Structures are given as C-alpha cells and as structure tokens.
C-alpha cells in the first residue's frame, strides 16, 4: 500500500506578515524554523522519498527531516504554490497589500487569465497538480513525504471530490468557495494511501504540534 503525506510548509515570513519580494524565495519565520524541527522530531514513519517544491519555504521546512534521514533521496516536483498575481508588481508588499488584487483575480473567475510575467493561469495550476499526483503514484517508492503549499493541498482535496471535472469557470468558482472554507494551517499533514492501480484515498489529517 503506497502512502503519500502532503505537508504544508512551516510559517513563512509572508505568513507572519512581513513584506516579501519574490514568491519563490520567501524564507521561514523564527516560528516556522521551530515548526520545521517539530516535523522531523514527530515524524514516525521512515520515508522512502522526500519531495519539495521549487519554492524555498518547502525546502527549508524539509531540511530537518532530510538531516534525520540522510540516506533518503530528495526530489523536486512542480508542487509549488499557485502564483496568480504577477510578482514584479508586488515587490516589497505584504499579504494584506495583495488582498484587493487577489479578490479581483478570483472575482474575474477566468481559468485562462494570466496576470502577467511570472504568474500562471488557474488552468495551468490545476494541470500541473494533476500531473504531479500522477507522477507520485507512478513512482516505485511506497512512503513519500511531500512538502508543498496550501493551494496545492486544497487543489488535491477538491480534485478528490471532482476527479473528472474540466477546469471551467464554474470549477474555478466552486474551488474558490471551497478554498475560503477550507483552512490548511502551516505544518498540517494530509495522508493519502492507494493500492496499486487504485485512486488515492485520504486518511485522517493531523497537525504537527509545537512542543515547549
């Protein structure tokens, strides 16, 4: 039985309210660094493979677990966050600053709209999440820890409910409603399992807790 754990990265500087420049290079806050250590300390199953995205906050979150299991291969898959706003226009801004343009993006509800250089369409995001899931299921490793992002995890959860749906405006609108009502905290873990040739099935999520 293959098991895949999707772990949201630890608290980033952006999550903590600090201004940031580029989506891919956001580091972890002090709390985030402690959360990353907690992931490694509380992880109970030896992984066969560790997966990170190309965004540095997943790499930093995975470092303590990689240090604990130095023999385990680490690979990068396209499980990076949905960047729907053009990064160049938001250098030095906070999540609060970006709230209004983000609202306008989702209100537009066009799965093929691209905000500019460095941004991606909602359709492309969904396609690469689907492709990443397929790649994970096809790998030989049976215990895979995937450090990724909130939108990615939500897209995976939503896809389990609508496995054959097209990426239409309605799909995007309904996903956004789901997004608003689905809270994915930092270092929350979503385990899935599947027998060979079968679809992934979600098990009970669990939260990595900070220990004083």
Number of strands: 7
What is the number of helical segments per DSSP (H or I, 4+ residues)? 6
Report strand %. 15-25%
Round the mean pLDDT to the nearest integer and report it: 95
Proportion of residues in helical segments = 25-40%
Summed up:
This protein is an alpha/beta fold and 212 residues long. The chain is built from 6 helices and 7 strands.
Q: What would your notes on this structure say?
A:
It is a single chain. The chain is an alpha/beta fold. It has six helices and seven strands, in the order βαβαβααβααβββ. Strands 1, 2, 3, 4, 5, 6 and 7 form a seven-stranded mixed beta sheet that branches. Helix 2 links the parallel strand 2 and strand 3. Helix 1 runs parallel beside helix 2 and helix 4 crosses helix 5. The longest helix has 17 residues. The radius of gyration is 17 Å and the shape is globular. The protein starts with a strand and ends in a 5-residue tail after the last strand. The model has no long low-confidence stretch (mean pLDDT 95).
